[in-house]
Amino acid sequence: MAFNIKQARIMGGNYWQGTIVRLRGIEPEDAEFFYQWNQETETQRSLDRIWFPSSLERQREWTAKKATKALDDDGYFFVIENPERIPVGMVHTRDCDPQNGTFSYAVALKAAHRRKGYAREAVKMILNYYFQELRYHKVTVDIYDHNLASIALHEHLGFSREGRLRQMRFAGGKYFDVLKYGLLRKEFINFHSDSA
C-alpha cells in the first residue's frame, strides 16, 4: 500500500504515521540510539565524515539540546521509527528559505534497517508536508557520488540531477564528487499522485 497523506487527513489519522514508518521529534531518551549509531563509521562517511569518538554523556547533552530546541524556522530533526516503534534513522530538514520556497534535507538509516522502504516513505512524507502544507516550491539534496543507494533512492523518487561539483569531498584517502539533485513541487505531485 502506498503512503497517502490525503487519506490520513480524511481519516483523522496522525499526519506523521505512514504505512511502515512514523516520524517524530527527537527525545532525550534517544541518546543511546544515536551513541550506538555513531559507531557505524561508514554511515558517518556517507553523511559527512568520520567524526572523533563521542562519549555517551556528550550524546545525552546533544539529544537533550535537540529535544528542547525552539522552533525558529522550518528546519527540523525527525527520528524515523519502524512499525515496532524502534528508531531506525533520521531526516533533518535544513536551509529552509520560505521567501524563495526552497529547502534541503539529509536522510540516513542505520545499516541494519536499510533496503526496507523506510527512507523512501519518510522522504515522501517530508516532501508532501513541505510542498502541500508549507508551500515550498523546490527541494535540493547533495549526494556524494559514491553513495549509490542514495542516488537510486532519489532518482526513484523523481529527483533530477542538476549538477556535479568535482572533487568536493575527501574520504578514505580519495576525493569524490558531490551530485546536486532537485525536485519541484509540481514534479512531486505529478510523479506521486497517490500522495497529493
TrEMBL record:
UniProt KW Transferase keyword: yes
This protein's UniProt keywords: Transferase
Signal peptide, first to last residue: none
CDD domains, alphabetized: NAT_SF
Pfam families linked to this entry: Acetyltransf_3
Domain N-acetyltransferase: 21-182
Gene3D superfamilies tied to this protein: 3.40.630.30
Entry GO MF terms: acyltransferase activity, transferring groups other than amino-acyl groups
Protein name: GNAT family N-acetyltransferase
Source species of the chain: Flavilitoribacter nigricans (strain ATCC 23147 / DSM 23189 / NBRC 102662 / NCIMB 1420 / SS-2)
UniProt cross-references to InterPro entries, sorted A to Z: Acyl_CoA_acyltransferase, GNAT_dom
